[in-house]
Amino acid sequence: MNRIVLLGLCLTLGLWSCKKDPKDPLVGGEPTVYKPTVIDPTSIFPVGKFGMPTLPSDNPFTVEGVYLGRMLFYDPMLSFDSSISCGSCHRQENAFTETKRLSTGIYGLQANRNSSSLYNLAYSKKFFWDARQSTLRELVFEPIQAHNEMAMTLPLLAKKLGRTQRYIEYFDKAFGSKPNVFDMSKALEQFLLTLVSNGSRFNAFFPGKFSLLNDSEKRGALLFNGLVDFDAVTGLTTGADCFHCHGGGLAQQNNPDMGGIANNGLDGNFPDKGYGAITGNPADRGLFKTPSLLNISVTAPYMHDGRFATLDEVIDHYSDNVNYLSPTISPMMAAHGNRQLKLTVQQKADLKAFLMTMTDTAFLANPAYANPFKK
Ligand code: HEC
Ligand code: HEC
User: Which ligand sits nearest to residue 304's alpha carbon?
Assistant: First the structure.
């Protein structure tokens, strides 16, 4: 008798937990059949503007896979004490970076670099400031297991996911599997690849329609896209040559092509060796991944160590403080004849005005990328 009551209770509780979660539009109570809804990648990527990226051949986008990845991205369950999620250090309103100089992980421990912004990752071939990862699928295991980020172990994570109804349901729907960390990494990869930013004013006028700019922005665009050339009479440079490294519609040369990984003259010796620590090659010391400048107005502080609090400080660096004696400085920087650009106050303001056209407000508020647990 008691047993039957208990069984009844379990069934009721079981059914209850399967009930539609009002916060979660896609979780339903109906029995699941493995039949994911495939998404055509040409509907995700702005092929006309950025071209078609090279995508993993064994991880097709599905509605269920992307949604699973989105839940995982925002789920603090991925950290050992369930205190932080990927979304804690990668915030949508900041183009998926955060406003701290260095990130704070679990137990208040500090990460050693500034959080990267996340968008148009499908067009990147190398990830992290030191370009140490080539696939997002492998990358996600780093923050999950890093002692100063999420400090999680994979067996424990698999166990936690396997006990959670929404994941039992969604791993089944997306991959026809029980919760496991391999498919977890594929779901996160799907979600990360869908983060596309191409709605800024810059992306509307680039490359041709400069008439859509006001005068200051136009002058800034000329500086950004012009080669360094000092006028014989005024002594002023007519170009600041940013485009060699931050060029194109992505405002970032495709990695690892020219400009993909470079030393932009911040330091003479290298407390953080960057790419050089990965390759062990002294010629690679102080080289870091060139970030895209899309959404740059909301991603402060800047550089791999967050050393610059404002865009003005960044522009001052390129104008007045480039370390031309830095042993591995990029040839693109050294092409300035080792002469500081010495931009005028007006030129600095123009350059900044141009950078401000790169903000994609639709991306920063796109509900498809938002925390699905908060509605
Ligand atoms: C404690 C804060 C923190 C957490 C939590 C965190 N990240 Fe990060 N993320 C960072 C930092 C810092 C970097 C730069 C690290 C580096 O370059 O060495 C980074 C870099 C990245 C990059 C590289 C982007 C690029 O363009 O090179 C990706 C992708 C990424 N994180 C995704 C994730 C995902 C997915 C999760 C959750 C599984 C996550 N992060 C959790 C702080 C965090
Ligand atoms: C030689 C290649 C190169 C050139 C030329 C160059 N940059 Fe950079 N830029 C980089 C690299 C590499 C970084 C990251 C460096 C680091 O964090 O150590 C960077 C970082 C930045 C950042 C910070 C991005 C962030 O997310 O933290 C801004 C803003 C920026 N550059 C603007 C400019 C402007 C404006 C110009 C022209 C005056 C310019 N850059 C010229 C390579 C370059």
Answer: 2
Look at residue 49 and tell me if it is in a domain: yes
Ligand 1 mean position to 115 CA, how many Å?
A: 6
Q: What is the pLDDT of residues 216-244, one digit of tens each?
A: 999 999 999 999 999 999 999 999 999 99
**pLDDT tens digits, residue range 331-345?**
888 877 889 999 999
Q: Which ligand is nearest to the CA of 224?
A: 2
Residues of the chain with pLDDT under 50: 1-23, 25, 255-258
Last residue of a domain, one of 169, 196, 223: 196
Q: What is the pLDDT of residue 13?
A: 39
Closest C-alpha residue for ligand 2 atom 40: 242
Pocket lining: 152 vs ligand 1, CB cutoff 6 Å: no
Kindly give the number of the ligand 1 atom that is closest to the alpha carbon of 78: 38
23-73: pLDDT as tens digits? 454 555 555 568 999 999 999 999 999 999 999 999 999 999 999 999 999
Q: Which residue has the tokens 């509307």?
A: 204
Domain containing 84 equals 22-196
Position 167 in a domain: yes
Ligand with minimal distance to 320 CA: 2
Calculate how far, in angstroms, residue 24's C-alpha sits from the geometric centre of ligand 1: 25
pLDDT of residue 89: 97
For 346, other C-beta atoms within 10 Å of its C-beta total 11
Domain ends where: 136, 161, 196?
196
Q: Check if 251 has its Cβ closer than 6 Å to any atom of ligand 2.
A: no
113 lines ligand 2 (CB under 6 A): no
Q: What is residue 3's predicted lDDT score, i.e. its pLDDT?
A: 45
Q: How many folded domains does the chain comprise?
A: 2
Kindly report the CATH number assigned to the domain that includes residue 127. 1.10.760.10
Task: Output the pLDDT for position 10.
Answer: 38
Rg over CA atoms, the chain: 24
Q: How far apart are CA 294 and CA 209, in angstroms?
A: 18
The CB of 306 under 6 Å from ligand 2? The reply is no
